[in-house]
Amino acid sequence: MKYRQLGSSDLHVSEISLGTWLTTGVGIERDKAGACVDAAFDLGINFIDTANVYGVGAAETVLGEALKGRARDSYILATKVFFPMSKEDRGLSAAQIEKQIDASLARLQTDYVDLYQCHRYDENTPLAETMAALSKLVKSGKARWIGFSEWSPQNIRDALALVPEAEKFVSSQPQYSLLWRRPEKDVIPLCAANGISQIVWSPLAQGVLSGKYRVGATPPADSRAASETMNTMMGTWHRDAVIAAVEGMKPLAVEAGCTMSQFALAWVLREPNIASAIVGASRPEQLAENAAASGLVIDPALFAKAEAIAADIPRT
Ligand code: NDP
Known about the structure:
Bound molecules: NADPH dihydro-nicotinamide-adenine-dinucleotide phosphate
Largest sheet: 8 strands, parallel, barrel
CATH topology: TIM Barrel
Number of helices: 11
Structural class: alpha/beta
């Protein structure tokens, strides 16, 4: 496993990290979630991403149990705040940030998170209030570093303008994959110029880039697409035109000497501003396959061919 510095922080995160959306505490059994965490440690994955809203606290609770007993400095833990936890509890006000960090720390059974992320931008709270609250968390030691997810370039510039009175963000968490390249235009250059790394979500397009789905076929029984708990947000990727395109990319992975999942993850990691690809896993074997994408050297000409195939996918 190779590691990359997370923005201007002192954290060095594994190029492949473990995510917990839909899986941990929600769509997969506790023992499987625990087995994935154990496998992550065995594979050199030192970075785990969660959020208070995943399973409305359940992901953090199960993760806290799975991490209990491990040396706290042996892993880098990230969580998030913003989405509703109840009718009243939502957003990035100072009161919410103070309340939600304590709830997350209790569920995670730890005194601090390494990275506390704003899950989205809060249009209803002044940015200065949010940044002051986050800065207070850093001073108190409850969060070591701060990040955001899916903020617009203008949101990012506004936050940077408040530094050094406020803490500076070190990470950005956008969706990014061979099938979703929007961050390349503005977010990546802006972040790269300001010591902010990307830690990207759904790098396998929720599993579709693994190549395991077939056009017109029933999805494998043990896959996200077949799970009523986990398949509700995969319509963009689990459709015939996308599946056919991934089918077309598979010979490129074969030529590169790796699996389709590894090819897709190595493609993400070719961009130096990406510190880590956050992958979900429903079983340890997937993590082992995905971890081996770290350090792969693949001919850029093969990547260019895959990009051309992706560019031809009809939008709907
Ligand atoms: P991926 O694109 O990595 O998809 C993960 C799923 O793909 C797995 O759960 C598994 O599902 C399948 N899979 C993984 N590896 C393989 C493999 N080698 N072969 C075949 N199938 C495989 O990411 P997610 O959509 O899960 O997102 C990753 C993480 O990003 C989340 O866990 C979360 O931490 C974060 N995230 C953040 C968001 C944000 O707004 N900031 C939004 C969404 C996610 P199965 O076996 O069930 O098919």
